[in-house]
Amino acid sequence: SLLPGIAVKSTGDYGINPDAVEAVTFAWLARQRLENIPAKLPSVTGAGKAAVLGAIYEPG
Question: What pTM was estimated for this model as a whole?
Answer without folding.
Answer: 0.67
